[in-house]
Amino acid sequence: MLQIMYISSSTASCAPVDVAKILTVSRHNNARDAITGLLYADGRRFLQVLEGPTDAVERAFVRIAADSRHRAVVVLSRRAIEAREFGEWAMSHRTPGIDGDALIEQISERLETASPNIRATFEGFAKIRRAA
Ligand SMILES: Cc1cc2nc3c(=O)[nH]c(=O)nc-3n(C[C@H](O)[C@H](O)[C@H](O)COP(=O)(O)O)c2cc1C
């Protein structure tokens, strides 16, 4: 299996309503393709982990990287994994009014089974974004 983690910046054309659309399509496609992972979206940045069968993850990432709703896609980690680190497709979407600590806690719960490297990246990212 393959696991890819990347960060990106949302483009001006990516409104909150688009994140809802991204999620709907992602949940459908990822369930079909046996892809799991986690998406952090706060309206300005995305941080996503995708994991599953190598071919399926490669194909999904090619589609995602070409999506004009985000830009500056940077792969932080790409590695073969023996077992999934994220048991289910999950998503935390930060919207104004949602407490940053609650969000980080929510993400941390999802990350319990993730490798230290992945966990540290997500937690650091969420803290930085909360302060931004
Ligand atoms: C930040 C971001 C994350 C995305 N994540 C996924 C994903 O996990 N799975 C997926 O199939 N599409 C994802 N998409 C959407 C794809 O770019 C693409 O629009 C979609 O896969 C096309 O699906 P369709 O061929 O069924 O229309 C994401 C898009 C963005 C901008």
UniProtKB/TrEMBL annotation:
Species per Swiss-Prot/TrEMBL record: Sphingomonas plantiphila
InterPro entries per UniProt: Acylphosphatase-like_dom_sf (IPR036046), BLUF_domain (IPR007024)
Domain of life: Bacteria
Boundaries of every BLUF domain copy: 1-92
Designated name of the protein: BLUF domain-containing protein
Pfam family, one: BLUF
